[in-house]
Design goal:
The protein has 635 residues and is mostly beta strands. The chain has a 9-stranded antiparallel beta sheet, covered by helices on one side. A 6-stranded mixed beta sheet has the order 8-7-12-11-10-9, with no helix packed on it. The protein binds MU-OXO-diiron and calcium ion (CA) (3 copies).
Length: 635
């Protein structure tokens, strides 16, 4: 669908890019290479490590890299084994309600509501009693391919199909166990749970009960039905799951003439999903405020099966990829997030209160009070966190921000006025708590530098950026600092590419379009890619093969390819058991059609992974990865 790829719309028409545009080509080059004097000072350990490049042994990465492929299979290194579990449509394991998956996709909407959703994305392992052999997997289901979801595809559309599509969105909680050398779902499980596009969520924080959040069905502005387009995930230090609502704007049908606010958030007259035809909640001409009730970071306590999920408005409204927590020395939470849309922003929230001992219940309102900031990356390698505080600077009633709730609901417009830096589609972040460093994938932006679009700047240095980059920063002091130093960890793309803007500075195995990111306990930065079906295998993407997962040694700079996925999939989400010996990742949309909707008459046209069953269809699934010798993943 038109949500997660480089052909997506951008709706940032604000003028604040030009002040960061870099006119000095020499400066651009050092930023690309990461070799400026300032950068050399800041990143001295990393740069000095580069001298050892070329050595055959890498202390951190012990596996043999896998080659690129365009075959419809999943490949892991020698000595590793991979197994697909928990595919779309498998029952999650609610007692007495476990309808079996039907390979012709004829399960009802009611079945789907208790089965794994479609299009698995971010995933986290929550150990039960600290165990590396039994735990909960919590994962997002980003969106649906309605060509695959219903036996006859989308025609004719009806209310049951809307319900099934909504039920295939959201979040799943499943219990898993390692028994006799194999991971399986525990079914039934008291923890098994689904959150869909119609599960009640509480609204909390400054924008809850705001007049812009009130609807006919919820006059108090306190309860929203559903979560949408959930992309990346993280686990908080107090044991909850955070999920980002990403491209929710594409689910609403808008009016002929959009308001400035609707246009700024990318509303369309006819959305990609025909939900509004049978569920008037998504018809913005009738229920304009429903649109404001999505775009929030969602917090879930998976260990309490009856806990109410919450949308945390203090973290701002955005096309949130996800949200990740760092901890200050005095134990306050700093939540970093970005929005995956062209020319949008990176944010951080600093909590007012300290993290309490006592887990989820003791921190039930921690993310409701604090200050939200947006990032400006300057060309001299400095960065600034600009507060989104009503009454400060341009964020006044006269400019359309009557109170803090309105600032948070209109965080994009507020960021425009503050002069934040328009980024190349921020995807996942990873935090090195010990070193005080933060990494963010900027997946690509083919519109950078196009006519009437923002030009290059220091942080987003390539026009027609088809390859993407990983930016990193270190706060000046603790994580709550107002300034930081930044540079690029890596520019993706083949260093041998003939076009300058598509050249990367990768040392080791090439990749493009970084998206998923995970920093493991040993310090390996795992990178997952998401090049779209319309881009892959041709032109500048020729030679990159199927989407993949790589390991990056931040000391030596080496990148090594760990896994390649099946045809037209995205590799996304990664989590490890506490002992580091089992890794879970997700394969999203194997066989994705170029138009993001499969032909129901030929559902296996591009892929039939993982079932390879005649008459079946490709399915997103979780992949369990183990070493044959039971060792730590990556060694
Ligand atoms: Fe849903 Fe930005 O990936
Ligand atoms: Ca995708
Ligand atoms: Ca992506
Ligand atoms: Ca993503």
């Amino acid at each position: 669908m038109a949500k997660d790829f480089d052909t997506m719309e951008d709706s940032n028409r604000s003028a604040n890019a030009s002040i960061h545009q870099v006119s000095d080509p020499a400066r651009r080059i050092w930023l690309q290479g990461g070799l400026g004097a300032l950068a050399a000072g800041l990143w001295a350990p990393w740069l000095s490590g580069c001298a050892s490049m070329g050595a055959k042994e890498d202390a951190l990465l012990g596996f043999k890299s896998v080659p690129v492929t365009d075959k419809d299979t999943l490949v892991v290194p020698e000595g590793y084994a991979a197994l697909a579990i928990a595919a779309w449509g498998e029952p999650v394991g609610m007692a007495g309600n476990m309808p079996a998956w039907k390979p012709d996709a004829s399960n009802s909407a009611a079945d789907q509501a208790v089965q794994m959703g479609m299009h698995h994305d971010g995933i986290e392992y929550f150990p039960l009693d600290g165990s590396s052999m039994r735990g909960l997997l919590v994962m997002n289901h980003e969106y649906t391919d309605d060509g695959l979801l219903h036996p006859g595809g989308m025609t004719p559309w009806n209310a049951e199909k809307t319900m099934k599509s909504q039920a295939a969105h959201g979040v799943s909680v499943i219990e898993v166990e390692l028994k006799d050398g194999r991971w399986n779902l525990v079914r039934p499980s008291k923890y098994a749970r689904r959150f869909t596009a119609y599960t009640p969520f509480a609204l909390s924080g400054p924008a809850a009960d705001h007049k812009l959040m009130k609807t006919a069905a919820d006059p108090a502005g306190r309860t929203v039905l559903g979560t949408l387009n959930n992309c990346a995930s993280s686990m908080t230090p107090w044991g909850t799951y955070l999920s980002g609502e990403e491209n929710w704007a594409f689910y609403f049908d808008g009016p002929e003439k959009m308001s400035a606010d609707q246009a700024r958030w990318g509303m369309r007259k006819k959305s990609f999903y025909p939900w509004a035809t049978t569920d008037k909640r998504f018809d913005a001409t009738q229920h304009p405020n429903e649109f404001h009730r999505f775009g929030w970071v969602v917090e879930i306590d998976p260990t309490d099966p009856i806990s109410l999920p919450v949308k945390r408005t203090a973290l701002g409204r955005a096309a949130h990829e996800g949200a990740w927590v760092a901890v200050t020395k005095d134990r306050r939470a700093v939540v970093y997030s970005g929005e995956d849309a062209r020319f949008e922003y990176i944010y951080k929230f600093v909590s007012r209160d300290k993290i309490a001992s006592g887990g989820a219940k003791a921190n039930g309102s921690l993310l409701d009070h604090g200050t939200l900031y947006v990032a400006r990356f300057d060309a001299d390698g400095s960065g600034h966190w600009l507060p989104l505080e009503q009454g400060q600077g341009p964020l006044t009633a006269a400019n359309g921000f009557a109170d803090q709730g309105e600032v948070l609901i209109k965080s994009r417009q507020a960021s425009d006025l503050l002069g934040a830096t328009k980024m190349d589609r921020p995807e996942w972040l990873a935090i090195d708590q010990a070193k005080g460093e933060v990494y963010c994938t900027l997946t690509n932006n083919s519109q950078r530098g196009a006519k009437d679009k923002p030009g290059v700047d220091a942080a987003n240095p390539r026009a027609n950026n088809v390859m993407g980059q990983i930016i990193r920063w270190k706060e000046d002091g603790d994580f709550d600092a107002l300034t930081m130093r930044w540079d690029h960890l890596v520019l993706a793309g083949d260093p041998a590419n003939e076009r300058a803007e598509a050249k990367g500075n990768i040392r080791g195995d090439i990749f493009a379009c970084p998206d998923g990111l995970m920093l493991d306990a040993r310090g390996v930065l795992w990178v997952q890619t998401d090049a779209h079906a319309t881009q892959m295998y041709k032109g500048e993407m020729k030679g990159f093969g199927n989407n993949q997962m790589l390991a990056l040694d931040r000391t030596t700079g080496e990148v090594r390819r760990f896994l390649t996925g099946p045809v037209n999939c995205e590799v996304t989400g990664a989590t490890l058991t506490p002992d580091g010996r089992t890794m879970f990742i997700n394969i999203q949309h194997p066989g994705e059609a170029p138009g993001d909707r499969s032909d129901p008459a030929d559902p296996t046209k591009y892929s039939n992974w993982p079932d390879r069953q005649a008459g079946g269809r490709p399915r997103s699934a979780t992949v369990v990865i183990r070493k044959a010798d039971g060792g730590v993943i990556g060694t």
